[in-house]
């Protein structure tokens, strides 16, 4: 009974002050999230989670709904909850891009517990950065970065940034941007605008969009060229660069 009372309080707190339309959107998201967590893809993801974390002693697994995390409501409604990448798309996209990762800064927009940031650091990127807006996930990501360095997973420590992906200014130099369907088109456009500005200033930018549900954000206005188009991911370069 006490448990039910606690659940009710938490759920009601998350719905407080929302419009009926926002409540409907949130409910739909929660249902989708629950359904996904029982499917075969979720079972495969759970096995991958366990294998990675068993190997490195990290905590990168699980699913987490944004409504359960301490993030600004208006931004949470534009984003998707946590589910880690398994690294396959990154490996495939890197092979197609044919770049030397040592020349690039890797940025994961919406990095959660940081698994793909750890994988990028191990792959040899000059810097590996994760940007995550949920403080609970960011705290786990920081511990994972420490652990990964301590057990020799990567030669340098990953950089975990707490903040909104749409407001994050990427560092100078060549950038490999990684976006795993972390948010909808509104935030995606904010991220792309900052990358486009860098490209217009002459910086080399490559972006891989995994589980690409909002390709229109990249492809409207022909500001990005498709370099490779696979079932699970699309590789882009901004039209503004000559690289
Ligand atoms: C599908 S998970 C991807 C996790 C990670 N990129 C990976 O591939 O392993 C989406 C993540 O994006 C985060 N997220 C959603 N909207 C965000 C925003 N506006 N700014 C920063 N992080 C965001 C969520 O909290 C969640 O951790």
From TrEMBL:
Domain of life the protein comes from: Bacteria
Protein name: DOT1 domain-containing protein
């Amino acid at each position: 009974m006490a448990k039910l009372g606690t659940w009710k309080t938490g759920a009601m707190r998350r719905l407080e002050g929302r419009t009926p339309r926002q409540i409907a959107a949130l409910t739909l998201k929660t249902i989708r999230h629950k359904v996904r967590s029982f499917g075969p893809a979720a079972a495969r993801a759970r096995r991958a989670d366990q294998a990675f974390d068993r190997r490195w002693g990290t905590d990168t697994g699980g699913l987490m709904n944004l409504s359960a995390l301490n993030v600004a409501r208006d931004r949470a409604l534009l984003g998707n909850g946590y589910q880690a990448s398994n690294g396959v798309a990154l490996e495939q996209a890197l092979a197609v891009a044919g770049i030397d990762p040592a020349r690039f800064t890797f940025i994961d927009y919406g990095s959660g517990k940081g698994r793909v940031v750890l994988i990028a650091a191990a792959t040899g990127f000059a810097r590996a950065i994760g940007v995550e807006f949920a403080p609970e996930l960011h705290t786990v990501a920081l511990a994972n970065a420490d652990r990964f360095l301590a057990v020799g997973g990567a030669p340098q420590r990953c950089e975990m940034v707490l903040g909104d992906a749409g407001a994050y200014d990427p560092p100078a130099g060549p950038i490999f941007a990684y976006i795993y369907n972390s948010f909808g088109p509104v935030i995606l456009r904010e991220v792309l605008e900052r990358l486009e500005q860098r490209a217009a200033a002459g910086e080399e930018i490559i972006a891989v969009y995994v589980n690409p549900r909002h390709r229109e954000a990249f492809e409207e206005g022909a500001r990005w060229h498709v370099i490779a188009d696979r079932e699970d991911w699309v590789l882009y370069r901004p039209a503004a660069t000559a690289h």
